[in-house]
Amino acid sequence: MTLKEKLEVQRKKTYEFLVNPKVVRLCIKGALIIFVPSLIIGAIIASLLDPAGIWMASAIWNQVGMTELPVDQAGYSIFTDYISNLGSLNYSPIPFFLDDAALITSLLLVPVSFYLKKRFCTIYDQQETPGKLGKNLSNLALIFMILGMIGFFGIGFFSEDIADSLEYATGGLAMVGILDLHEFFSMVVFLNLIIAGIFLGVIGLKYASMIPKVFDLNVSKTIIIIVAIEMIIFPFPMMVATVITQWPFFEWMMLFAVFGWIIPLGVAFLKQINKELGLK
Q: What is the distance between the alpha carbons of residues 244 and 88, in angstroms, rounded to a whole number?
């Protein structure tokens, strides 16, 4: 067997592993259990124990000579703090909640991305006159999903603190244009997931009547259309608003818009896989 043939065999084995329903099921459950709770818990802890707030309260106490430390005047809020701030010691005493969750979740969503593409391809195969449009859209969605996962891994690996330290230590060399590494990977994850969502949204609109049957979902065509429209319309304007206004609130709305289709899609796949494996 030649080297090329060995590589092809290994590629097929890797692909079969990635789209194995049991593997995908564990990855979906792991992603849902790890990232969403970590984001919520991290935000709650940061809002209660924001070091910047404690510093501000101490400064007020020293200035006016108060006899007791006032309540944290800063705290953490989606209206004033970026998502990335949860991964910095300047804003949270436990930044690893976001950083580690991003690293692990990005890896877990890789098999899910390949499985998503495989499942959508079954829609086109069941058509009387299969066309290339659907498969091309699925391939593009997979590419941008994987690029998004690279960005997702990057924001966890190059946290806000690490990116700032690298920028300082290298005299600005560890940057991509005007962005530090964390900011760059933040753009990568959001931009690519938004584009992937647009392609998947188009698929959802085009094959809305077939999706419930193919995925064995007990939902109406109307629900599929509503989710597809959300995927196409809402995330990108939120990203534009974030870039233009630099207001953290819009970044949070962008996150909610993206997860507004990722989570329902993951839950739908989980139910479909459970039925396929005969599990509850």
A: 24
Burial, 215: exposed, middle or buried (Cβ in 10 Å; 0-12, 13-18, 19+)? buried
Q: Give the C-alpha separation, 259 to 162, whole Å.
A: 26
Q: How far apart, in Å, are the Cα atoms of 142 and each of 113, 138, 235, 262?
A: 6, 6, 18, 13
CA distance to 96, 147, 160, 183, per residue, from 174 (Å): 22, 20, 13, 12
Element of type H or E holding 82: none
Angle, CA 106 vertex, CA 102 and CA 108 arms, to 5° = 120
Q: Give the global pTM.
A: 0.84
Residues 55, 128 contacting (CB under 8 angstroms): no
CB 73 within 8 A of CB 56: yes
Rg from Cα positions in the chain: 22
Nearest Cα neighbor of 239 from 280, 198, 204 is: 198
d(CA 90, CA 98): 14
Q: How many CB atoms lie within 10 A of CB 69?
A: 11
CA triple 273-98-230, angle to 5 deg: 55
Phi, psi of 130 (to 5 degrees): -55, 135
d(Cα 116, Cα 200) in Å, to the nearest integer? 10
For 194-211, the pLDDT digits (tens) are: 999 999 999 889 888 888
- Evaluate whether 61 touches 69 at the Cβ level (below 8 Å): yes
**Locate tokens 């804003």: which residue?**
91
User: Burial of 91 by CB count in 10 Å (0-12 exposed, 13-18 middle, 19+ buried)?
Assistant: buried
The lowest-confidence range among 4-8, 130-134, 232-236 is: 130-134
Q: How far apart are CA 262 and CA 15, in angstroms?
A: 22
Q: Give the pLDDT of residue 56.
A: 46
